[in-house]
């Protein structure tokens, strides 16, 4: 399968691929999460209390899955389902490729020396750790924000979520990624010194 993506055309496909889900997310976000009278009315008091701002003076996109009467706001729910399916499909691709890579690597490593096999295992470990970084610092912290409106509606409570803590997790991600890679490189340098 990898042969299909060789050459300049294949490289362009791989470079353009990350823009596809991001672009889809942005388009659906723009289409389904536009502010309307209901969302402005629902968020007006919250904005006034927390930020001392009139909501109509702020650029905003709002996702409120339920109306005051408990009926479903289908546009917002559609966006949520599309966003979750985009993320889920990418995790399925990651898991599939990771498992396939692990199986192929296990077979191929038997042909190499022990030292070369250990080095390849370290690279695989680095890849796994760097794949977990975005999950731990971006996806998992955002999940409660996405699911909270449903839970609060079920228990009939109002909510006000301050998202400052989320920015802390997002800010931790770049150093984590670098530090994780440096630790793997440090492990490689220990192996090289032993040789």
From TrEMBL:
Pfam families per record: 7TM_GPCR_Str
Keyword set, alphabetical order: Membrane, Transmembrane, Transmembrane helix
InterPro entries the UniProt entry points to: 7TM_GPCR_serpentine_rcpt_Str
Transmembrane regions listed in the UniProt entry: 12-31, 80-99, 127-152, 164-186
PANTHER family in the record: SEVEN TM RECEPTOR
The protein's name: Seven TM Receptor
Organism for this UniProt entry: Caenorhabditis brenneri (Nematode worm)
Source organism phylogeny: Eukaryota, Metazoa, Ecdysozoa, Nematoda, Chromadorea
């Amino acid at each position: 399968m990898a042969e299909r993506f060789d050459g300049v055309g294949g490289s362009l496909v791989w470079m353009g691929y990350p823009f596809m889900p991001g672009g889809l997310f942005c388009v659906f976000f723009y289409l389904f999460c536009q502010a309307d009278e209901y969302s402005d009315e629902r968020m007006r008091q919250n904005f006034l209390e927390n930020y001392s701002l009139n909501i109509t003076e702020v650029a905003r996109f709002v996702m409120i899955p339920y109306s005051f009467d408990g009926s479903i706001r289908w546009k917002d729910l559609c966006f949520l389902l599309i966003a979750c399916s985009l993320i889920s499909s990418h995790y399925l691709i990651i898991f599939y490729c990771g498992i396939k890579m692990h199986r192929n690597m296990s077979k191929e490593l038997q042909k190499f020396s022990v030292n070369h096999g250990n080095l390849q295992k370290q690279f695989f470990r680095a890849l796994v750790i760097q794949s977990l970084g975005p999950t731990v610092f971006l996806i998992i912290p955002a999940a409660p924000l996405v699911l909270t409106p449903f839970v609060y509606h079920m228990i009939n409570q109002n909510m006000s979520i301050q998202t400052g803590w989320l920015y802390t997790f997002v800010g931790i991600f770049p150093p984590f990624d670098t530090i994780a890679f440096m630790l793997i490189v440090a492990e490689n340098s220990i192996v090289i010194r032993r040789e």
